[in-house]
Structure formats: C-alpha cells, structure tokens
Amino acid sequence: PNSLFYVAADFGASGGRIMLGEYNGRNLRLEEVHRFANEPVMLGKTLYWDFLRLLLEFKRGLTLTGIRRKNISSIGIDTWGVDYGLLDRRDELIGNPYHYRDQRTENIGREITDNFISWEKLYAKTGVQYLPFNTLFQLYADKKYRGSLLEQAESLLFLPDLFAFYLTGHKYNEYTVASTSQLLNAGTAGWDPDLLQAVGLPGKILQTLIRPGQVTGILTRAVQAETGLGAVPVIAVGSHDTASAVAATPLATAQSAYLSCGTWSLLGVERDRPLMNALSRQNNFTNEGGVEGKIRFLKNVTGLWIIQQLRKHWTENGEEIGFPAISKQAAAAKNNRFVIDPDADVFRAPADMAAAIRDYCGDHGQGIPRTIGELAIAAYHGITGQYKQVIDGLEAILGYRIDAIHMVGGGIQDGFLCQLTADVTGKTVLAGPVEASVLGNILLQLIAAGEVKNLAEGRELIQRSFGTQEYSPQPRE
Ligand code: LFR
C-alpha cells in the first residue's frame, strides 16, 4: 500500500524542526527536512523571540518538504507554551512576541496576588503552577507598561495559533496551549471571564477554543505560491509541545511518570481529572490540558537550559564544545560534590551561566567549580536532585508509588543524564523516543485522519516503531 506523509513543525526554545512522518499502515518513520536554531534577540533591555525569522524558516521548511514529496496529507504545529502575539483589528501583528524569560514580568505575579486575587484562589480556579511568565502575568505586564498596545489588541494568539494564522488565515486558540496560560478555568476547561475581569484585562481578545484533532484550515493561496505546496490542510494537534511529547510517550503502566527532557524538564503523570489541593498547591504542581481530554499533572524543572547556556558561554569564549563532550567531562569530574538549585532565580536568564554557577556554589559553601566537568556536574546534580524531589512530591500527593520514569525528548541522547536520573530517583528509567513532540504532533494528525483509532493505539505504534532503552538504578557511592 502507498505510504501517507504528514508534516510536523515543532518549535522549541532552542531550536525548531520541520519533519516528515511516513506512515505505511504499520510503522511510522521520521525524515528530517529542515532544522534551525531559535535565537532570541535582546533589543535594548527587552528579550524577544525572533518570530519573523521563525516564520521564514517554517516556510522554507515547507518549500523543502514540497521538493521531496508531492502528496502531503496535512500539517501540524507545536511550540513551547505561554507566549503569544497580539493582532489589531486589521489582523496586523502588534509588536513582536516577548520571550517568557524577559524580565518585564518580575514582581507581576506578586502585584496581582496582592491586589486582585489571592494565590490560593487563582490556583483553585486555574490549577496552574506559579511561574513568573504565565500568560496571565504577561498580559498584565503589557497592560501596565504598554497599555496602548493592549488597547489596540483584538486577538490573542498563542505561538502555535499565530503560526497557523499566517498559514491559513484562521484564528483560534488551541486548547492544550491555552491550558498553560492561567486564563482557563480548570473545572470547565473553558475561559474564565471572571478572572480576566478581576485583573482588568480585555476578555474580547480570547478566541474560540479548538480541541486537538480538528482541521482548522488549508494553506492560503499566498502560502501555496510561496512554498510550492498545494491546498494542504492544517490540523490543530496538541499544539503545546509538552502535550505532544506526552501524547507520544508509550507509558508502560498507569503508575509510570513521564519526563520530557528539553530546555525544560516536565515531570509528571497523566490523569483523567485535574487535581488541586493544598499539597499540590504547596508543591506547585500544574494541571495542563492534554490530548484526548487527559490532564498533565506535572511540574516544570529547569532542565538542559543550564547546560545549553554553559555551552553558549564556552563557545563565545573560544572553547567550541558539544553536548556529548560536556556530558563526558561531567561524568569524569574529579571533584563532584557540586550541586545547584536549577530553579533558583539566579539561573533564569543570567548573562554568564558559568559565573552564576560559580557564585552559587561559592555562596553555598561548596567551594568554586572551575573546570568544564565541575561546572557541568553541578548542573546535573541539581537537575536530577529536583527530579527526585518532584517524584517524592508526586508520590505524597497521589498516594501511590511511581514504578518507572519514562524519559523522552532531546535530553535522552545523554546517557549519563538518563543513568543519573535512575540512580538518584531509584526508579527504572525507560528512554525514548527522542523526537517525542514531533511524533505526538504526527500522531494527532493520524488520529484526525482516522488512520489511528486513539491515543492508546498511537502509543503502541510509537513503541513498535521506535522502541525504548532501559536504565536500571545503580547504588550510588
Ligand atoms: C517546554 C515548555 C513548557 C513550558 C515552557 C515555557 O518546551 O513548553 O511546557 O512551561 O516551555 O513555555
């Protein structure tokens, strides 16, 4: 039988890729068409995404896709969460989308919870963890610092929605990405108009919520002409990258946790219903919307961001070094007592990550890490130490033991990280697939097309096509 071809556009905080999925009725195969860096731009004091460049790379990727294959069934888009673009009444983009690490949201969460709604109430309504860059907080910062721009805004589109708009001309908000914004009500899974009103934000900018698995439009004539593709449909997938990654995680048992490992580490479990109680709030667990009506009960841990920023620092200082070499030197570090708290504020967006780690270790009486290996091991210990804490928190809240951790995403190419995760948590680690977001994206397209029945069948397909690697916990000295 003829194969079917699906395009996944997956934008992460450090890079994007356009991939082709080939489905032959039994197995799925991936082909990389285009990969590019995602390099934010500091403009004065403000950190922006380079949205125009990302859109250009997207369209370039579509052109390259068209050269390889003529028969594309559909396109799906997923990106990181919380960030957005605002359109005016002529559908022009108002300003450039801000990076969630931009410092304009500093103290905003505080201001909102002091003046408008307590954190307890906000959490009970939305079920979303406290992160300084939640969309709710960003919009409030827009109002506070650039009120005239927000006044002009007619539509808010999260990043995946924004890309989709420029491909098809249709505006909507996809549910999984909307669910990380802290603008949804966890109980109804719809917008919470009272919340916006309480904080003084314009409700009219919110769009119709679309569930993953729907066709939302076809490429505009202009985009068809630009890319050489035909009238290809765009499907709303789990457009939050983490929703897609979890969709593609073939969890071995209902008591398994997933750990999506990229710039961020997202560690949690899949549930049928949101869970908000004092313990989940104190531990800052979030309830994000998944595909097929599932809830991703998880916590963000600052992940490879630290290692990525170390590498950037070394590269800029003339020491070209790849991730495998960094990992190797960390594993071999002579002095390996160093450990940081990766979620400490000082690591959110430091100008020099190596200096931030040296200062942290110095201030905490650990001495000063100096070599590449020592700096990196401080990060590895910090990250895996947080994993352990999150697992302990999950077990306390859920009242059962997690029996395995299923790791996916780019980070699992680092065998040292996988093994250390097993050792520190004492859990069996199952690793794979690497391209989880891309595969979850394609899976939703297959489900929309009726080629795959549901999530469970899709996960079997992914397990069958890509397999997993097991790491057993070893006693630590
Ligand atoms: C992962 C991710 C996380 C989100 C963070 C910021 O790529 O989407 O889920 O909390 O990026 O958007």
From TrEMBL:
<dbReference type="GO" id="GO:0008993">
    <property type="term" value="F:rhamnulokinase activity"/>
</dbReference>
<keyword id="KW-0418">Kinase</keyword>
<keyword id="KW-0808">Transferase</keyword>
<comment type="similarity">
    <text>Belongs to the FGGY kinase family.</text>
</comment>
<dbReference type="Pfam" id="PF02782">
    <property type="entry name" value="FGGY_C"/>
</dbReference>
<keyword id="KW-0067">ATP-binding</keyword>
<keyword id="KW-0547">Nucleotide-binding</keyword>
<dbReference type="GO" id="GO:0005524">
    <property type="term" value="F:ATP binding"/>
</dbReference>
<dbReference type="InterPro" id="IPR018485">
    <property type="entry name" value="FGGY_C"/>
</dbReference>
<feature type="domain" description="Carbohydrate kinase FGGY C-terminal">
    <location>
        <begin position="257"/>
        <end position="449"/>
    </location>
</feature>
<dbReference type="GO" id="GO:0019301">
    <property type="term" value="P:rhamnose catabolic process"/>
</dbReference>
<dbReference type="Pfam" id="PF00370">
    <property type="entry name" value="FGGY_N"/>
</dbReference>
<dbReference type="InterPro" id="IPR050406">
    <property type="entry name" value="FGGY_Carb_Kinase"/>
</dbReference>
<protein>
    <recommendedName>
        <fullName>Rhamnulokinase</fullName>
    </recommendedName>
</protein>
<dbReference type="InterPro" id="IPR043129">
    <property type="entry name" value="ATPase_NBD"/>
</dbReference>
<feature type="domain" description="Carbohydrate kinase FGGY N-terminal">
    <location>
        <begin position="65"/>
        <end position="246"/>
    </location>
</feature>
<dbReference type="InterPro" id="IPR013449">
    <property type="entry name" value="Rhamnulokinase"/>
</dbReference>
<dbReference type="InterPro" id="IPR018484">
    <property type="entry name" value="FGGY_N"/>
</dbReference>
<keyword id="KW-0684">Rhamnose metabolism</keyword>
